[in-house]
Design brief:
By secondary structure, the protein is of the alpha+beta class. It folds into three domains: 8-120, PAS domain (Beta-Lactamase), CATH 3.30.450.20; 123-201; 208-352, Histidine kinase-like ATPase, C-terminal domain (Heat Shock Protein 90, 2-Layer Sandwich), CATH 3.30.565. It contains ten helices and twelve strands. Strand 6 (228-234), helix 9 (242-262) and strand 7 (267-274) form a beta-alpha-beta unit. Helix 5 runs antiparallel to helix 6 (173-200), helix 8 (210-224) runs parallel beside helix 9 (242-262) and helix 9 (242-262) packs antiparallel against helix 10. The relative contact order is 0.09. Bound molecules: adenosine-5'-triphosphate and magnesium ion. Residues 258-259, 261-263, 285, 287-291, 294, 304-308, 332 line the site of adenosine-5'-triphosphate.
């Protein structure tokens, strides 16, 4: 028979030592007071080597340097965005590599301590990435089928109708008129199918890269809409990972569509900067701004449609930093910063 723990403290220690989540307590200066053994598997530190260090060693550098400031502000103002809520962030392993985590922080009222529970999200994010990639492959397949089967068949029918209409010329006016209408209807459907095909497919993105695909999309938008859409590109460094470019592309499209649909803007500016260390994508309109009923809760936008939710999700999956800012005076600005692996940290945040 296993022995039962004789004190509450022992029982708690036993529970903590079997947990796969990391549980850390830190004082108000961020000094680690206690940590359970799960820290070694997740972050590569032995508990004893972490105790006494500042908790910021577990954070990407850019965030770590700002962390002392957050703590000081929290202690002064009592307001902290992360306390009492869960948040998805990027953490730093002892060997320096960055990985996605979920962190929930609470404050112990009876002691001057914070408790953080940290869960590894690497597998989930990997699965999300794979699911998105599979869905893109499937979209491309449907697009090809539509193009090669339906699109070409409809085009063939349109041409046959045109020939018959010509042959009937001068014979039966009524029938000729009906055929002309039919042929116009078919032509319209062919062009609708074409639009659906190009909406689904990302062949250009795969073959020519992000700038080229965005350029084609922006041109298309300028053909149909009253707002002027401009695209400025700097640098041209292919994303090392197709998932990155496809997600940035879809983020840009949704943001542009939103600006066209909702903003009443006269100008939509898209900017793409591809550098060695990062890719910066900004979509900015001079419209009326996001409606006030869109709020931030737990660091996330709520009351959104699918579009803004997907933008968040896509940025999260590639580990990009998303900043959405908006006002009635200046319009809406969506910035997505993707740091190339091993270079800089990324966090998800919004300011509205
Ligand atoms: N650039 C913008 N300017 C003004 N309002 C915007 C802008 N982008 C989004 N919105 C507002 O935010 C709401 C949510 O946008 P979201 O893209 O999530 O959904 P949607 O565009 O309404 O529908 P869909 O799910 O088809 O994208 C919109 O209904 C609109 O009111
Ligand atoms: Mg939308």
């Amino acid at each position: 028979m296993p022995s039962t723990p004789d004190t509450d403290g022992e029982e708690l220690q036993a529970i903590l030592s079997t947990m796969s989540d990391v549980v850390i307590t830190a004082d108000y200066h961020g000094t680690v007071m206690r940590v359970n053994p799960a820290i070694e598997k997740l972050f590569g530190y032995l508990p004893a080597t972490l105790i006494g260090q500042n908790i910021s060693v577990l954070m990407p550098e850019a965030y770590a340097s700002a962390h002392d400031g957050y703590m000081a502000r929290y202690l002064q103002s009592g307001v902290a965005r992360i306390i009492g809520t869960g948040r998805e962030l990027v953490a730093r392993h002892r060997d320096g590599h960055l990985f996605p985590i979920h962190i929930a922080v609470s404050k112990l009222e009876q002691y001057p301590l914070f408790v953080a529970v940290i869960r590894d999200m690497s597998e989930l994010v990997k699965l999300e990435k794979e699911a998105l990639l599979i869905s893109e492959i499937e979209r491309n397949r449907i697009s090809r089928e539509l193009h090669d089967e339906l699109g070409q068949n409809l085009l063939g029918l349109t041409m046959q109708l045109q020939v018959i209409t010509k042959q009937l010329a001068g014979n039966d006016n009524q029938l000729q008129l009906q055929l002309q209408n039919l042929s116009r209807g078919l032509a319209q459907n062919v062009s609708n199918i074409r639009a659906i095909i190009s909406e689904l497919a990302t062949v250009e993105l795969e073959e020519q890269g992000l700038q080229s695909a965005l350029n084609t999309f922006v041109k298309l938008c300028n053909n149909y809409n009253k707002a002027k859409v401009t695209l400025t590109c700097e640098g041209q460094k292919p994303a090392e990972d197709y998932t990155v470019s496809i997600n940035l592309y879809r983020i840009a499209r949704e943001a542009i569509y939103n600006a066209l649909k909702h903003a009443d803007a006269s100008q939509i500016e898209v900017s793409l900067k591809e550098q060695d260390t990062r890719i910066e994508l900004i979509i900015k309109d001079n419209g009326k701004g996001l409606p006030p009923e869109l709020n931030v809760r737990d660091g996330r936008l709520i009351n959104t449609g699918h579009g803004l939710r997907n933008i968040h999700f896509r940025a999260h999956v590639i580990g990009a930093q998303l900043t959405i800012s908006s006002s009635a005076a200046t319009g809406t600005r969506i910035e997505c910063l993707y740091n190339r692996p091993g270079v800089k940290p990324s966090l998800i945040r919004e300011n509205i």
